[in-house]
Amino acid sequence: MAIAEHPSVCTLDCPDTCSLTVGVEAGRIVKVRGSQALPYTAGVICNKVAHHTGAFVHGPGRLHHPLQRVGPRGGDSFRRIGWDEALDIIHARTTEVIDRYGPQAVMPLNYAGPHGLLSYDSMSLRFFHRLGATQLFRRAMCGGVRSEAWVGTYGAVPGVGPEAAAEARLNILWGNNATVTNLHLVRQLGIARRHGGRLAVIDPLRTKVAEQADLHLAIRPGTDVVLGFALAVALEVRGAHDRRFIAEHVAGYAEYMEAARAWPPERAAETCGIPLAQIETLAEWMAEATPLVIAPGNGLERHRNGGSGLRAAIALPALLGKLDARSGVVLGAGNAFPRTPARLHRPDLLPPGTRTLNILDVGRHLESDTLDPPLRALFIYNHNPIVVHPDQNRLKRGLLREEIFTVGVEVAMTESMRFCDIILPAATQFEVDDIYVSYGHPWLQRAAPVIPPLGESLPNTEIFRRLAARFGFDEPCFAADDATLMDEALDPADPRLRGIRPSAVPTTEALRMTAPDGRPLVVFDTIMPATPSGKVELVSDTLAGRWGPEARLPGYRPRTAALPLALISPASDKRISSTLLGAGGAPADNPPLLMHPADAAARGLQAASRVKLWNALGAVILPLRVTDAVPPGVVASEKGTWLASSPTGQTISALVSATDRADLSEGACYNDTAVEVSAA
């Protein structure tokens, strides 16, 4: 049988949101490659998606039918049931909870599995809003710190596009492991370097892209704000601050620089753990370079000073007056799209006064009845919380409680699903209609199914339509089909859509969001800052109002941990968070722990093949790799591995505190984990 090719879009948690060509033979996906529909990705995709999609869709862990647990939680004893029985059980058990405790005893636990606007959250939020369930603040897990820092400084506007990196005389990757998390940005960096541009990388880990850089600043985790301040001072000393631009377009300059001057390069070098010459060199390059592009990554936000580090980094182009169509910061692309979340999610259905919980606190609230009412029914979807959440062991203890009725909606039998009472099989992105914005570029894409849903699996939208019907929710919004949901997800009348309804965007081409004159939407070119002052706000009363008075100005909080080593958790080139791991993890999938030779020698571990990584929250056994790819005092191991890969049944998420928070958005501190290492 001939292979039929269909257009599609990658839905995984990545800024590139690649366009795909999917080869199908006899109802099975047999090949995935990049397509030309999205000019930015230009037919290139990562090895993860190219090589593992078939196993992800058709592998042995794929869920085909509704299941009911018949054995202990965390085990593998389930029986197949029908959809009607599954919905009846969910309705009966959830209604019991609501009758006894009220609707806020019910909570969704979801995050960022699929990134299509429909699958991510559309009919699902309508259902939970109508139910009156406890709401979840999800952005603390990832992305919230970055978003708050950007919006607090520039407003909800797009920065410079990633394609600008191709023409930059200096590109700075800051906390951005781009080779494995931002592939197409790396292509732009290559173009720039072939034309004589320089590349500087700021990252505690010597990543692959850092190996290729002209300058690698391996700073200590949490010291980004100190480096940003020192660069601001070094640029001021050089007379590189653009006084005219600052006077017209920057608010809070004097107060900001007063704080920055407490960190001259000499002091900053000692705190950051890098040579003074590196700070001076980078400042010199920044003063000289036009165009200049800074591309921050997720790593920059995941520590105690994450918000301050981001704000100090993104302030630098404003101090230099290098903000236009060719220079600036690669952030804020998601602000280019005319999204209408109120129409899609229907928050008007939510009863006034309904509480909202931070997603990082879920383990604590599940383990102990710390709330009134307590949590007694949980719906897990688009999420593998046991692998992803901090304080993994506490979350597991919470999910083991039989009195908390738990429903899972998932593509595969993840370890989190093994704790559920009822599992509903979800369709993959290749089996549904959806529409895709991106947080890394300004192109809108739509995808249609390339194969039918496997077995009895259903799209997320249909699953929650059926749940709404079983609960007796008869408002018209619960009957909306997927095309209607697409048209409610974005404003069809917005000129950025050029008269094309979202549900009619061609699946064979991407639609770029542009200004009325057809040029890209870029702050200080076709759009101005959307802050209260209309300027770049280096001092933010908005952030102070949201996150406390300390957030008004970036600041440095020194490390106070008792244990000597700082654990960072970079992304893997084999998976995206915990997705695309094949069958779900095995001992061979256990990534190594990287440790500096000096730290290994101090612990007598030079010849060790395996070590125990531990703190008060847990212990993980990992292979040891002694290398100078990490600086002294820092250890690194990849995130996203499943429990099955670990001899202790724990992964590095078990060691991450759920109570340590970043300085904005109450964000998680994955790259700020205090640990010790000993022989296994």
Automatic annotation (TrEMBL):
Gene3D superfamilies: 2.40.40.20, 3.40.50.740, ADC-like domains (2.20.25.90), Dimethylsulfoxide Reductase, domain 2 (3.40.228.10), Formate dehydrogenase/DMSO reductase (3.30.2070.10). One of its GO terms (molecular function) is iron-sulfur cluster binding. InterPro entries: Asp_de-COase-like_dom_sf, MoPterin_dinucl-bd_dom, Mopterin_OxRdtase, Mopterin_OxRdtase_4Fe-4S_dom, Prok_Mopterin_Oxidored. Keywords: Iron, Iron-sulfur, Metal-binding. CDD domains: MopB_3 (cd02766). Residues 3-60 form the 4Fe-4S Mo/W bis-MGD-type domain. Pfam families: Molybdop_Fe4S4 (PF04879), Molybdopterin (PF00384), Molydop_binding (PF01568). It comes from the Bacteria. Belongs to the prokaryotic molybdopterin-containing oxidoreductase family. This is Molybdopterin-dependent oxidoreductase. It comes from Siccirubricoccus deserti.
